[in-house]
Design goal:
Layout (H helix, E strand, L loop, with lengths): L1 H26 L8 H28 L4 H15 L2 H14 L2 H5 L12 H4 L7 E5 L5 E4 L1 H7 L3 H4 L12 H15 L9 E6 L5 E12 L6 E8 L8 E4 L5 E4 L1 H7 L18 H13 L2 H5 L4 E6 L7 E11 L4 E9 L6 E6 L4 E4 L1 H6 L4 H4 L12 H4 L1 H5 L15 E5 L5 E13 L2 E10 L2 H6 L2 E6 L5 E5 L23 H14 L4 H7 L5 H14 L5 E5 L6 H6 L11 H6 L11 E12 L2 E10 L7 E3 L5 E4 L1 H7 L3 H4 L16 H5 L3 E4 L2 E4 L7 E6 L5 E6 L4 E2 L5 E2 L1
Helix pairs in contact: 1-2, 1-3, 2-3, 3-4
């Protein structure tokens, strides 16, 4: 300490001499005339003194490289004497960062030897909020962690009263607690870990873990040190801090989602206004007020309650009370556990797509903070091109919900902050709020496989066509349970295989399918299965249009009704490419079948993915010359060709349109000329129907809707 003071006085002395030499130099120019010789001599003296000061600073900074006081003093020297503004700023910043933390670091905080509580023993001066106060609550020193936690600057904190960091009524009562201790010496919270509530500079309340100990002194000369750590946020916990009188002091963001209100708007509310059973919650709080501390620690204080949510029906939950605060000022921490099987996230948006409310876990799902998600547009969470097409559906809810719409409950994808697609299942409903319509979106994250299973049923079959497995077994995608097919023949399910088996029976067994099955293990299906394998190896990603029949309906019934699916003389090539346009039996379901080669018990097998056709919606990106830049998997299933084969094709090679057709003519867009490029009226076109070529040799009717997209000045990519 003595050595540091001596060195610091040395710095102050050379710094003062440099400033004096600088003053003497400029005084020469305050006269009407001066001699060049005097200016030269004074300038040489200034440079010499500044160099000596620089040398002294360099030597002492080598001795005390992390002393905030020395760093700030050197920053002042660089600014006033050396006129090095950037260097001064750098040293000021570093000195402020270290600040008085350096002084605290030099104190002997051997809390482990003193057997203090863990929050003090594990104290980190650089990360934790550490505050030192005197006997009247004046803040003497703060760490950088306190600045980060509370939002105040060091200058604003140091010299202020510690009660500025507490919400009412604790801020009003805290001086009396200090006064009582200094007069009686009786501790109430010293050396005990507590969970209390604090208030940020921006006036939001949050819970913290607090540890306070006395550093030195007695009576009015006491010095106290406090360590504060924000309570960890957990996805599984839902907590609200309540005063004994039933007022909400603060809550975590998960509780905000439970009741559908922003966390900051709940401060000061009566807890009874947030539940269905008002008398029940009042009785529970009365029980908490009279219960001894042991009841809280043993978890005996529990009750069941329905919480009122602003946007959804009341949510059942179990409440367990814990005790926090001090002996004189109790705080009840209510841990809430929902009684729902599939917990859902939630967000609310208006008809313009502006997000007006969101739960904390919803913001975490898309990788942004709650504050950033609030006020943003819903389109920022949607992948292109749906982000440009979605506003219409917010403003005009269709009377009939399309089967592939998010309102129908199918799995869709959201776009997170890293531009990664996140599969989710939505439940959407609309309601009136403050004389305006809002859309409430409940979100549940699902696996990528669930997104596929929402649109397909997969049959694993051996080379004889026997169905080994069906996934998912509980699927009702086609309107009936699919697990009943396990162990049967794929020819009893899919029209293409049925027609092939019938053709083999007609050719070799006089049309008797039973005899065909008795004489061959597969009824002739093995050749067809091998053909599928060969086709998949040659053109991976190809798909075929087929018809699945429900149980208790055979294909003969369809033929007898004049609804023959495939003509009897079809060749193997025709069966694989289904060149006959099939009239579908009304009870049946159309599917796009995508084969996948797999192994079962070391033997080759096929997994036939049956994608339900009316659930498929895909997209393509087109260049300005209407060549396909890329197509997604769903477009591939609609058209039957792999995405790699669609890329770089011209649109007229896929759709039945004229080779010279322009985009505007195809979609009926009116144009006007303006600026460097043509301006298209309406970014999103109206839906238009076209006939497209299918890879199986037939045709398919598709509905096309376009979204114009600019990429740089003077270019347009659609």
């Amino acid at each position: 300490y003595v050595e540091f003071k001596r060195n610091y006085r040395c710095l102050a002395r050379v710094h003062r001499k440099a400033l004096k030499a600088q003053r003497n130099f400029w005084k020469l120019f305050m006269h009407s005339s001066t001699k060049v010789r005097m200016v030269h001599a004074q300038l040489a003296e200034l440079e010499e003194v500044a160099e000596r000061a620089q040398y002294a600073y360099r030597r002492i900074m080598e001795r005390y490289p992390n002393n905030g006081k020395v760093l700030k003093c050197y920053g002042k020297f660089l600014e006033e004497v050396k006129n090095d503004i950037s260097g001064a700023t750098r040293h000021y910043t570093e000195g402020n960062r270290i600040g008085t933390t350096d002084a605290m670091m030099n104190m002997d905080f051997d809390f482990a030897a003193q057997k203090k509580m863990d929050i003090l023993v594990n104290m980190n001066m650089h990360e934790d909020a550490v505050i030192i106060i005197d006997a009247v609550g004046t803040i003497l020193m703060t760490s950088q962690g306190a600045v980060d936690l509370f939002g105040w600057t060091k200058r604003e904190l140091e010299g202020g009263n510690v009660s500025m960091l507490m919400p009412q009524p604790f801020s009003q009562r805290h001086p009396s607690y200090l006064s009582r201790f200094t007069s009686t010496g009786e501790p109430h919270i010293l050396d005990q870990a507590q969970q209390v509530v604090a208030i940020h500079k921006e006036k939001h309340v949050f819970p913290v873990d607090l540890g306070v100990t006395k550093l030195s002194g007695s009576g009015a000369d006491c010095i106290f040190l406090g360590v504060l750590k924000p309570c960890p946020v957990s996805m599984g916990s839902v907590r609200v801090w309540v005063s004994p009188s039933g007022f909400v002091l603060c809550s975590d963001q998960q509780f905000s989602g439970l009741v559908g209100l922003p966390a900051e708007s709940m401060v000061g509310r009566q807890l009874s206004s947030l539940v269905v059973d008002v008398a029940g919650i009042d009785a529970f709080l009365e029980k908490c007020r009279s219960a001894p501390a042991s009841y809280f620690s043993s978890g005996q204080l529990t009750t069941s309650m329905h919480f009122v949510n602003k946007y959804v029906p009341p949510i059942p939950a179990t409440i367990t009370a814990r005790l926090n605060g001090t002996n004189l000022e109790r705080i009840f921490v209510l841990n809430v556990e929902r009684k729902v099987e599939n917990e859902e996230m939630m967000m609310v948006c208006d008809r313009q797509g502006v997000i007006t409310f969101t739960t904390w876990d919803m913001a975490a799902l898309v990788g942004v903070s709650t504050a950033k998600l609030l006020g943003s547009k819903l389109e920022s969470l949607l992948p292109p091109p749906y982000n440009s097409m979605h506003t219409k559906w917010l403003q005009d809810t269709p009377p009939t919900i399309p089967p592939n719409s998010c309102r129908a409950g199918v799995v869709v994808s959201l776009l997170n902050s890293s531009n990664v697609l996140v599969p989710v299942r939505l439940r959407v409903h609309s309601m009136e709020e403050n004389n305006r319509t809002v859309h409430v979106v409940r979100v549940r994250k699902v696996s990528p496989n669930e997104m596929l299973d929402d649109r397909r049923v997969s049959f694993t079959v051996d080379l004889n066509g026997r169905i080994l497995d069906v996934e998912p077994e509980t699927s009702l995608l086609y309107g009936w349970p699919v697990d009943s097919w396990k162990g049967g023949s794929i020819a009893d399910v899919v029209d293409l295989m049925h027609a092939w088996r019938q053709r083999v029976a007609d050719a070799y067994h006089g049309g008797n399918v039973e005899q065909c099955l008795q004489e061959t293990d597969s009824g002739g299906l093995k050749v067809l299965m091998l053909a599928f394998i060969e086709n998949e190896l040659a053109r991976p990603g190809s798909s075929f249009r087929v018809v699945l029949k429900p149980p208790h309906v055979d294909f003969a019934t369809a033929n007898a009704a004049g609804q023959k699916t495939i003509h009897q003389g079809a060749t193997l090539e025709e069966l694989l490419h289904n060149k006959a346009n099939a009239n579908v039996l009304q009870a049946s379901r159309q599917a796009s079948m995508m084969p996948e080669v797999v192994e079962v018990d070391g033997l080759p097998a096929l997994k036939l993915h049956m994608y339900k056709q009316d659930t498929l919606t895909g997209y393509m990106e087109l260049e300005t010359d209407l060549s396909i830049r890329k197509a997604d998997m769903w477009t591939s299933l609609i058209l039957g060709a792999p995405s790699s084969m669609l890329a770089h094709k011209k649109l007229h090679e896929v759709l039945h349109v004229d080779k010279s057709s322009r985009w505007e003519d195809m979609m009926g867009i009116e144009e006007q000329t303006g600026g460097l490029t043509r301006v298209t009226r309406g970014i999103v076109t109206a839906p238009c129907s076209f006939i497209a070529d299918h890879a199986d040799g037939g045709t398919v009717r598709v509905t096309l809707q376009g979204v114009s997209k600019s990429e740089g000045l003077g270019t347009k990519n659609r």
